[in-house]
Amino acid sequence: MFVEAINQTVGVGAGVFLGTLIGFGLRARSGKSQGLIQGSVWKTAVLAGMLAWLLAAVLKMVL
Length: 63
Prior knowledge:
mainly alpha; elongated; 0% strand
């Protein structure tokens, strides 16, 4: 059941990853690196995408 929820919510994780990557990438280029995990846009985007994907999958199972 959890695997099915993971498969159904993959778009949420991908969308958050891409949005975070673009947003923090533009922000980091202007010199504002606060809020990044270990100063890395990639690590921040991957973590945000993974957390959003997990949360969406859990909510899909519960609701």
